[in-house]
Task: structure prediction
Amino acid sequence: MTKASGKKGEEVFEQLRQMIVDGKYKPGDKLPSENELCKIFNVSRISIRESIKQLKSLGLLETHQGAGTFVRKFNEEQFISSFMPIFIKKLTKKDILHILEVRKIEIMIAGMAAERSTQEGVDELWRIYYAMEKEQDNPEMHYRTDLAFHMQICKMVNNPYLSQICRVLFEALEQAMMTIVTIMGPQKALHYHRKLIDTISKHYVHEAEFTMAEHLKTTIDAVESLPETDSVFDQDQ
Result:
């Protein structure tokens, strides 16, 4: 493959990927034939095949022999299975810190939510916030409202793929997130959640990202300060 065809393939890959993310091609939809795609993007078959190959490797496309290439449906079971080791063992301090690294995706999500926020979405954040404030002495309900708050921010991005990934991720990491909420307590969460509502409602993209990053860093610092033998790591999973 020449450098030129490689560059064209990358361009087609990016355009097709964005079309899938934006919902132009939805899960279950069949892509146009190779010939049609060549005409649409004005590139060679090599470029089309290379871009499709990359999208298949990401799990976004699948080919059915004799039927064509289709946008792949989101497979929750397959995604959850990658987290199974977390379900079947007690969480160590190192596990919690690794999980907090995964949650750094929420920094990007907060910025996108600020950029795309609506009054309806912000009103829902406030509703969850007040419920969280009311239930701060109830650890179980505090966790549930904390989870709902972060899911609402994800929903405000208005990207169905991202919303599904966040939901499955949070559900898969439920025990770990409950432990994290226990470590932090309600006051820290309420403080940062109020700041997040403020920045998101005003469409302050960078400030929302910074607030989420600070929220996660505070949590990481709190976990790092605990000894491995702390009773919080001995909770039943």
About this structure: Residues 205-224 form the longest helix (20 residues). The domain at 77-234 is CATH 1.20.120.530 (Four Helix Bundle (Hemerythrin (Met), subunit A)). Confidence is low (pLDDT under 50) at residues 1-5. The first strand starts at residue 61 and ends at 64.
